[in-house]
Amino acid sequence: MQFTRSPLPDQAAFRDVLGHYCSGVTVITAMDGDEPVGFACQSFQSLSLDPPMVSFAPAKTSTTWPRIRRAGWFAASVLAEGQHDLCRQFAVSGGDKFAGVAWRPGPSGSPRLDGALAWVECEIVGEVEAGDHVIVLGQVLDLASSAGSRPLLFYRGKFGALAD
User: Fold this and answer.
1) Using one digit for the tens of pLDDT, what is the confidence trace for 26-78?
2) Which of 24, 76, 58, 43 is nearest to 128 (CA)?
3) Consecutive H or E run containing 15
4) Which secondary structure element, helix H or strand E, spans residue 89, and what is its range?
5) 106 CA to centre of own chain
6) Structural domain span for residue 40
């Protein structure tokens, strides 16, 4: 049987269909010298158990990603329900994203956001160009979660939460 390739879907259709996939929301952070930097990221996932690794995918146009790359380390804070304003604060370009944000440095110095459901601290061990994004590979060095919270979810362009 011969496979016939159809035209690629347009961006609006791609976004609409893939928007049906519910994701958690993270904020990827690092220290650029003495300045904390970070951005909101939905494309974060577990990658490997042995060794423990995660990945995330910033846009090639990101102005924050080169600053995190330079650090060589990052923390991913998994946002809890009710932290949508925090997500929005880290989703914008420019400005002081850390204004009014409580955080603590992890062993690498990367900011761990207070109130997050979980955090994972990693060393950057590789990256792969993929379309208009870069897939970043992180070796997990430290991690923890907090009890009693639920994740902030993103579905079809809106924030949501788990139901009982």
Assistant:
1) 999 999 999 999 999 999 999 999 999 999 999 999 999 999 999 999 999 99
2) 58
3) helix 11-18
4) helix 84-91
5) 17
6) 24-153
How far apart, in whole angstroms, are the C-alpha atoms of residue 130 and residue 73?
21
Q: Report the pLDDT value the prediction gives residue 3, as an integer from 0 to 100.
A: 77
Each residue's pLDDT tens digit, 66-94 = 999 999 999 999 999 999 999 999 999 88
Is residue 3 in a domain? no
How far from the centroid of its chain's Cα atoms is residue 73's Cα? Answer: 14
Maximum separation of any 2 CA atoms in the chain, in Å: 60
How buried is 59 (Cβ within 10 angstroms: 0-12 exposed, 13-18 middle, 19+ buried)? Answer: middle
CATH of the domain at 72: 2.30.110.10
Rounded CA separation 34/79 (Å): 24
State how many domains the chain has. 1
pTM above 0.85, yes or no: yes
> Which residue, among 133, 128, 129, 111, has the nearest Cα to 120 in the 3D structure?
111
Which 3 state secondary structure label does DSSP give 91?
helix
Contact 31, 111 (CB under 8 A): yes
